[in-house]
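For the sake of transparency, this paper describes our internal protein records without simplification. The remainder of this section carries one protein's record, kept here as part of the documentation:
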Amino acid sequence: MDNATSNWTGRIVASFAMIAAVAAGLWLFTREAPAREKYAVIATSCSKFEVDARTLFDKGDIAILRGKFAPGDHVHLALDLKGVGYVWDVMGVLAKKPEMTGYGAHVAITGSNATSTVAHGKVSGFARLEWDIDVDKPGDGVIMISRIDSVPLMPASVASASCRGSKTMHVRPSLVEAENRFKAEAD
């Protein structure tokens, strides 16, 4: 092999490397900016909890399920997560650490003050997070799952969801007063 042939081989390889670098630069320069995270928020109730939970995770990077719950309601939610970097937050009357099964790393923190209770955690791996919550006081509850910084191998999915309403009826005083007035007028 002579010097003239080896010089051409080096020049050809260098040319291909430069073309690849220019193409990569153009691709980075012309690609669209990353989309902002999409929020999906569903206001739910105990009677619609199962349906709302199952439809929520297809709608956004941050899924927020929010509702009003009564004492005696039993809320159950099991989520299957496959990937790295999921974050969950549970607030209000639903604030409780979930049970985790499967393989992976899970960090959870719960805190409360005079006005609110919050549970927060991060999950990586092949895991199922499961909440079984007996609501003990009336109020708002929020469950939020974020996959913003995650590398999901598969989308999060709801394994099971339910809410059994309390068996006691909560009658508003205004309805009782109206019924008493109606009875008094009828007499």
